[in-house]
Design brief:
Length: 310
């Protein structure tokens, strides 16, 4: 089979630039490209560029090319990073993308997915790197602007209620369906391959402000436990909002839903703030307690989530 990307690295980089050129300019300029030099020159344009995150996606661990198109991999690689910024009450600004791939991988189509994510999240591409590899690896770094004080995991209080921005479990349920039939499609499969970062709630939780927050990447219980551990608290869960088509196990432990868990002592204020912005109301799933551990319907839960075997 003829390789998809023949030619040298610089020809391919030029092709990539043509694909994403409209997202390669600073926010305050449509003349000076962010690409082409050893570093991007970023002007904050009045924004406080103070949040930084990075994420690595590896073939066989985070995705399989049996059921992901290159564009879907490109979109997801951006979306999962945007979610980290949103969980801290921030807005995404700039990304850099490093990709190492085999010759049969369609890099240009990958960047079609990146472009779609940039359009959706109002992002700019500030550079990256390209290399060959037997397996596919994608590393994205992201810069963002906090709207207020960045929301941490370690600042929940015992008086806080625990909120979830939407049901969980759809991604895990979709992954199971794709593993059974890589050609299958539907809302659950789409939730897994094309997750949506909850940037729509970032400003609301920042201005409340929420006392703590985290996105659901490793699983609802596992990620809630990160807040509990870092805030030195336990939790009592009263409801588990499973997505349609997902089991309770998917909901609790599945991961990659990218809803946001956040905490606040005043449910009425939270609901009012979401209503004012015409955003779907979050779900109150429980509250914190001083005693360690997580209870669900007065029974201790096994705390687990996705973790790499290193």
């Amino acid at each position: 089979m003829k390789p998809i990307h023949t030619g040298n690295e610089f020809e391919k980089l030029n092709e990539i630039f043509q694909t994403i050129s409209q997202f390669a300019f600073a926010f305050n300029s449509d003349v000076d490209s962010l690409l082409g030099d050893d570093c991007a020159i970023i002007d904050g344009a009045g924004q406080n560029i103070d949040l930084f995150a990075s994420d690595l996606m590896a073939e066989g661990i985070h995705f399989s090319r049996l059921y992901y198109t290159p564009a879907e991999i490109g979109y997801k690689s951006i979306s999962v990073n945007v979610s980290d910024i949103a969980a801290m009450g921030g807005m995404p600004r700039y990304v850099t993308i490093a990709i190492a791939c085999p010759k049969d991988f369609d890099i240009t189509n990958f960047y079609v997915g990146v472009k779609a994510a940039c359009q959706e999240y109002n992002l700019r591409v500030a550079g990256g790197d390209l290399s060959s590899s037997e397996n596919l690896f994608v590393s994205v770094a992201i810069l963002g602007s906090s709207i207020g004080q960045p929301i941490k995991r370690s600042t929940a209080t015992v008086n806080d209620h625990i909120f979830l921005t939407g049901p969980t479990g759809a991604s895990a349920a979709g992954l199971e369906l794709l593993q059974q039939d890589p050609s299958s499609s539907g809302p659950l499969q789409r939730s897994h391959k094309l997750p949506k970062a909850r940037v729509d709630v970032a400003a609301v939780i920042a201005r409340l402000p929420a006392n703590s927050a985290i996105d659901v990447s490793d699983g609802l219980i596992g990620d809630l436990n990160h807040i509990c551990t870092q805030s030195n608290l336990g939790a009592v869960i009263e409801t588990m909002p499973a997505a349609e088509g997902a089991t309770l196990e998917h909901c609790m432990y599945g991961g990659e839903d990218y809803e946001i868990i956040f905490t606040h002592p005043n449910p009425e204020l939270v609901m009012e703030s979401f209503s004012e912005q015409n955003i779907s109301l979050p779900i109150v799933i429980g509250r914190f307690r001083e005693t360690k551990g997580i209870l669900y319907r007065n029974k201790p839960l096994v705390v687990k989530g996705y973790a790499h075997d290193l």
